[in-house]
């Protein structure tokens, strides 16, 4: 373990070094983030999941940096070029870019112009020129003309020397650092449409002629421009003003003299920038801004996913689910309270068949036969028409009719998971089942679908897929363990995300359950093949067994604390069941009496909180939502309409809202509230029910502008704030350039 890393992480996260070291020790032993934050508070000093995950990720970065450092030191040492001073610099490097800059002169490379010039014996000439002293350049250069070495003219000799000098400049660690800073601080993204592709690239219209600072460019615009470039619609440049870059290089490389050698170095500087340094820096900056944009996009995606996964469940009810359609009809299934498929049928209430009487009779019969308590209708094609039809049937008032977001249901229906569950049914039946189960328990159903397909991200296919997967897996695991899992009804996919399990043990649990019947206690879980003590320790507190003889098996109290709870009950002359059902009895317990070396007040308080609400679902209570009747298509919208909607996706620039017209509308950041909003996540959440005003309808581009302001039209007619859309300024005057050069020399000397 590198104690310096622990100190660094502690400083960055503003926590104690011991909290970092103890957390890393738990992680290295195989403990999961949910387990550590929930059941090891005394060890970590009550760090939450976000802090534990931050420690894990930062230490991983630093360990990767160390691996690269070791490889670089070994490579340079094998070349016989490792000096104590260089070794000290490499060991002191705190970032990968600094490490790579130090390694650049020693990095094995293909034959370069400088390599060829050295082979021609021109390095001594380059050295003399680079010293920038006063000497007869022609006389000195002619000494290196040698036909056998293919140096036939003075200019060829000078060109070779300049090639070597250009490489030296490019490998200057301090210059690269300052150039990197210049690119990031003063660089501009410049995006232009490729001529002739204006119509094909219409979705990138905002970036046909766009310029903005690299430093402040938001994640979504960086990813949008990069996608436009990747799809060959946009040309994207990401550099500072060339004058500024060359001025920086001049200030760091040129001597304050006027002679022929200085002029040769000046030429080499320009060549170095255009041929070596600019492409290298642009690549680095693109990687840097891409990583930064990815991190922001992934963060937004993960938070949206969390909110969607933790959406209010209807619970264990008998549900009818309808996957609506026109020509192919509406696939209709009925599900039991545990989500089991009871029946399936197809009805045709919409165009072109329009068998309303027959379809209505089928719906009524199924509702009565299966005692249906709720009807879930997917929000895809024909959803509003199907909803109106079902509501017109005069079903019992207690039957809930509600729309369900079906994003990802088609992905599930074609998946291996769906084929395992329903091998004898086609895709449409599986899709309808997914819609119904999503109403009953969104979390349990959505874990079966690739998170990227659920519809709450943006540019999810453009970001680093490994980083995205890790973040989304963390989010799903956090949600699953936060809610808890009923081990006797959970699917293999849901169990997979329980702390300490994974796919193999999840499958083994299901297999054991199928062979031996429901688990009767948490301790019986230890009988599952390959589920050892470590896995049991990690998983047990997050697994629930409702009908166990021990009431604690249905709670989040970890089995390692059962003995402690029993002692608490015994000390006040009660049993555990009484303790869980009586606030009066619990109030008699003095927590400080039970503090020990391994159990502190944080854990004791968690236990008391859990005893008061054992196994209670932390998610909100389900509420029925209805869209505006008569507004079914984008063509039905009129500017000024006020409509109910559900937030489906949150980005850094606003929130998307489903208003029931098969195309989500956008509430821009500036229209989310009457007050200034810096981050949409501060004021709205996924699945939140809102009222919006229609501001703009663009049918050809399928764009809907919405507002959540109380008086959204009050600002109309006012000029846009300065700087709302940054464009490149007029060319600078000669006086401006001179002033900038003076500033840069002072800044970088």
UniProtKB/TrEMBL annotation:
<protein>
    <recommendedName>
        <fullName>S1 motif domain-containing protein</fullName>
    </recommendedName>
</protein>
<dbReference type="InterPro" id="IPR006641">
    <property type="entry name" value="YqgF/RNaseH-like_dom"/>
</dbReference>
<dbReference type="InterPro" id="IPR032639">
    <property type="entry name" value="Tex_YqgF"/>
</dbReference>
<dbReference type="Pfam" id="PF16921">
    <property type="entry name" value="Tex_YqgF"/>
</dbReference>
<dbReference type="Pfam" id="PF00575">
    <property type="entry name" value="S1"/>
</dbReference>
<feature type="region of interest" description="Disordered">
    <location>
        <begin position="708"/>
        <end position="736"/>
    </location>
</feature>
<feature type="domain" description="S1 motif">
    <location>
        <begin position="640"/>
        <end position="709"/>
    </location>
</feature>
<feature type="coiled-coil region">
    <location>
        <begin position="137"/>
        <end position="185"/>
    </location>
</feature>
<dbReference type="InterPro" id="IPR012337">
    <property type="entry name" value="RNaseH-like_sf"/>
</dbReference>
<dbReference type="InterPro" id="IPR023319">
    <property type="entry name" value="Tex-like_HTH_dom_sf"/>
</dbReference>
<dbReference type="InterPro" id="IPR010994">
    <property type="entry name" value="RuvA_2-like"/>
</dbReference>
<dbReference type="InterPro" id="IPR012340">
    <property type="entry name" value="NA-bd_OB-fold"/>
</dbReference>
<dbReference type="InterPro" id="IPR018974">
    <property type="entry name" value="Tex-like_N"/>
</dbReference>
<dbReference type="GO" id="GO:0006412">
    <property type="term" value="P:translation"/>
</dbReference>
<dbReference type="Pfam" id="PF09371">
    <property type="entry name" value="Tex_N"/>
</dbReference>
<dbReference type="GO" id="GO:0003729">
    <property type="term" value="F:mRNA binding"/>
</dbReference>
<dbReference type="GO" id="GO:0006139">
    <property type="term" value="P:nucleobase-containing compound metabolic process"/>
</dbReference>
<dbReference type="InterPro" id="IPR023323">
    <property type="entry name" value="Tex-like_dom_sf"/>
</dbReference>
<dbReference type="Pfam" id="PF22706">
    <property type="entry name" value="Tex_central_region"/>
</dbReference>
<dbReference type="InterPro" id="IPR041692">
    <property type="entry name" value="HHH_9"/>
</dbReference>
<feature type="compositionally biased region" description="Basic and acidic residues">
    <location>
        <begin position="712"/>
        <end position="731"/>
    </location>
</feature>
<dbReference type="GO" id="GO:0003735">
    <property type="term" value="F:structural constituent of ribosome"/>
</dbReference>
<dbReference type="InterPro" id="IPR050437">
    <property type="entry name" value="Ribos_protein_bS1-like"/>
</dbReference>
<dbReference type="GO" id="GO:0005737">
    <property type="term" value="C:cytoplasm"/>
</dbReference>
<keyword id="KW-0175">Coiled coil</keyword>
<dbReference type="InterPro" id="IPR044146">
    <property type="entry name" value="S1_Tex"/>
</dbReference>
<dbReference type="InterPro" id="IPR003029">
    <property type="entry name" value="S1_domain"/>
</dbReference>
<dbReference type="Pfam" id="PF12836">
    <property type="entry name" value="HHH_3"/>
</dbReference>
<dbReference type="InterPro" id="IPR055179">
    <property type="entry name" value="Tex-like_central_region"/>
</dbReference>
<dbReference type="InterPro" id="IPR037027">
    <property type="entry name" value="YqgF/RNaseH-like_dom_sf"/>
</dbReference>
<dbReference type="Pfam" id="PF17674">
    <property type="entry name" value="HHH_9"/>
</dbReference>
